[in-house]
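Figure 3 (text version): structure tokens given as input.
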């Protein structure tokens, strides 16, 4: 029956045409949804391809004796965000020369604790107070160690350099760091 009334007075439309209309509508909706999903996927792929990781900031720091003579100067990568500080030098090795390191800059001076988890080479950790005065030095911290190394007082800055750096350049507690 194509259309008509039932005994109860309801109008009936031919079911085969009605079902075909619904199926046709569903197919169109599925096609639109798939095109939308494909467009979103393509945009995500393009955006991720264009996105570059933020470039590391670099600067130089010098270590000065009490007479303000330069003991050593190091090109440092600056870790001044929580993400950079958490990552530190994990998974990376500093060059074996004494010209490279990482400077951790914290918002305030506070007790600091570092470890060498996933860090492949030995490092010296130089903890400094708010004025840049060396508080203490952890020399040749063992690679991949989970041992905690703490500052001897509130530290605002920490410099990580290749192991043995502090001894080679006579950097001691009380030495000052200059930017």
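Below: residues designed for each position.
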């Amino acid at each position: 029956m194509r259309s008509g009334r039932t005994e109860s007075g309801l109008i009936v439309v031919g079911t085969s045409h009605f079902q075909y209309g619904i199926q046709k509508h569903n197919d169109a909706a599925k096609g639109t949804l798939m095109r939308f999903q494909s467009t979103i996927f393509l945009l995500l792929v393009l955006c991720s391809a264009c996105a570059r990781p933020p470039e590391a900031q670099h600067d130089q720091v010098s270590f000065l004796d009490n007479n303000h003579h330069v003991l050593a100067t190091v090109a440092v990568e600056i870790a001044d965000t929580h993400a950079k500080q958490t990552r530190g030098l994990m998974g990376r090795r500093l060059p074996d020369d004494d010209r490279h390191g990482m400077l951790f800059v914290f918002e305030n001076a506070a007790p600091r604790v570092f470890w060498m988890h996933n860090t492949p080479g030995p490092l010296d950790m130089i903890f400094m107070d708010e004025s840049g005065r060396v508080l203490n030095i952890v020399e040749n911290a063992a690679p991949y160690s989970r041992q905690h190394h703490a500052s001897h007082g509130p530290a605002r800055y920490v410099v990580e350099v290749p192991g043995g750096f502090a001894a080679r350049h006579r950097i001691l507690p009380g030495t000052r760091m200059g930017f």
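The chain has three helices and eleven strands.
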